[in-house]
Amino acid sequence: MNLQNIIFEIEKKDPEILQKLDTRRKVMKDFARMSGKVALASMPFALGSMFQKAYGSPTDTKDIIIDTLNFALTLEYIEYNFYIKAVASGIIPTGAATTALTVIRDHEGEHVAFLKAAITASGGTPVSFTAASFDFTAKGTFPTVFSDYGVLLAVAQTFEDTGVRAYKGQAGNLISNNDVLTAALQIHSVEARHAAHVRQMRRANGALIPAGVTVKPWITLNQSGIGSPAVQPSYDGEENVVQAGVTITNIGGQAISASAASEAFDEPLTKEQVVAIVTPFFA
Amino acid sequence: MLTNQSKNVVQPIEANKSGLSRRRFLGYVGASSALLVTAASCKKDAVTTTGGVNLGSGDTGILNYAYALEQLEAAFYVMVAASPYSGITAVESAYLTDIRDHEVAHREFFKAALSTSAIQGLTPDFSSVNFADRTSVLATAKAFEDLGVTAYNGAGKLIVNPAYLTLAGKIVSVEARHAALIRDLIAPGSFADNTAINAMGLDGARTPAEVLAIAGKYIKETLNASNLPTS
């Protein structure tokens, strides 16, 4: 993980990032100290909490909204750059599969453009990333992401399902601005449509699906449907069957299984959880 | 249990509404609101301002609005599962049964959450649907799912309590997953085509009035949405 690059990149677009993070020296010192003490696996959480401090607690409503939009823009940049490389990889079957991933790529590009313009129009400065900003092997976790179609689809599914949960987790931060909230919801449901389609592509392809698991357009319990523990944080919590204190399983005397109860509601992720999930995908 | 605690939240949130320049944002977003304005053809007066089933006001009204739509969807899929269309495949049957369970869960959730504030059970009118015919069933399902997505997307801004907003968010993405699947069953690859998504990559958003004008055709009762919030 090259933390410095991430911070420098954000600093270019948000000169106040380091004030938000305290001072560069202190940040780097803290980070170096953590690096020495903390197991590599927990590094994303450490990074997440640093960004949480920087971006998670502004008190001004306008800042909260712009920060939230920049967070969304960062996720869209990841997805857009992923699909650019995916479609260009040469391993996607021609025809329906290539067409579908191209449609999704173009939507993500439209989301990037939309959010950039929305942030600028709101008086903020959009973050910016390029292809070189990302490592879609996730530090070697998915070394064949652009040479093995099954792995490519698994990563795509994880990005889409994570994106749905990420937007859902941010809705409350946008509740004070009707137009921004509505636009975010309009992106959120597009990501869910993408997720549903990629899941069907995975079911048809069959690769990496554990025995006894059926990959459906919706998320069953906390099952990723992907034979890799690396993606599990994107699915943990989806098994929830209690909503606003109401137990959904067999609710109202209806035969609703725990699986169906979990499928019927997608669950949010916090910004910190999402940062932890996507951090390995930064170069 | 959802309670009418939203009153306490109203003031601080409203006070902050001007935090971001509305006009500047609107200047950019403006075009999106024209998305998917479907001509609402209704055979009868589906929405009234006097009498009818009163959805109520505030967050309770929005939750009742969602409850009405979920009642409609659940009733539809209960029928679909009970009388499968001719030539249904095992995979299609499993998917439609899952969707039935999701919609029944949504319906029962709103009923339980609204408790004594809940509207009555509604009487569906599916006389325009041929349940024996795959094309008719899936076209209706597509209409309901796309409508549901645009309804929740449009209602989000009308909700005051952030907890209810999150709940609506938990449901709308599942409706979007349904919409994508149904669309793919009708025409593979149409999960997010340009009849659903605009050139900025945005899904649709409809006001309650727009939604009820479309949904009313499938509900025997007349709904009174006149007390729902409008912004």
Number of helices of chain A: 10
**Largest sheet, spatial ordering of strands of chain B:** 1-3-2
Low-confidence stretches of chain B: 3-44
Total count of helical runs of at least 4 residues of chain B:
7
Q: Percent of residues of chain B in helical segments?
A: 40-55%
Percent of residues in helices of chain A: 55-70%
What is the overall pLDDT average of chain A?
87
Instruction: Estimate the global geometry of chain A from the Cα principal axes.
Output: globular
Radius of gyration of chain A from CA coordinates: 19 Å
Protein model, in words:
- The complex is a heterodimer of chains A (283) and B (231).
- Chain A is mostly helical.
- Chain A is built from 10 helices and 2 strands.
- Chain A has helices at residues 3-13, 17-20, 24-37, 43-55, 61-88, 96-121, 149-170, 178-205, 258-263, 271-278; strands spanning 242-243, 246-247.
- Chain A has a two-stranded antiparallel ribbon with strand order 1-2.
- The longest helix of chain A has 28 residues, at 61-88.
- Mean pLDDT of chain A is 87; it is low at 1-7 and 21-54.
- Helices cover 53% and strands 3% of the residues of chain B.
- Chain B is globular.
- In chain B, 48% of the residues are buried.
- Chains A and B meet through helix 5, helix 6, helix 7, helix 8 and helix 9 of A and helix 2, helix 4, helix 5 and helix 6 of B.
Q: TL;DR of this structure?
A:
The complex is a heterodimer of chains A (about 280) and B (about 230). By secondary structure, chain A is mainly α.
Topology:
The complex is a heterodimer of chains A (283) and B (231).
Chain A (H helix, E strand, L loop, with lengths): L2 H11 L3 H4 L3 H14 L5 H13 L5 H28 L7 H26 L27 H22 L7 H28 L36 E2 L2 E2 L10 H6 L7 H8 L5
Antiparallel strand pairs in A: 1-2
Chain B lengths: L6 H9 L6 H8 L17 E2 L4 E2 L3 H25 L7 H25 L19 H22 L6 H25 L21 H8 L7 E2 L7
Parallel strand pairs in B: 1-3, 2-3
Helix pairs in contact in B: 3-4, 3-5, 4-6, 5-6, 5-7
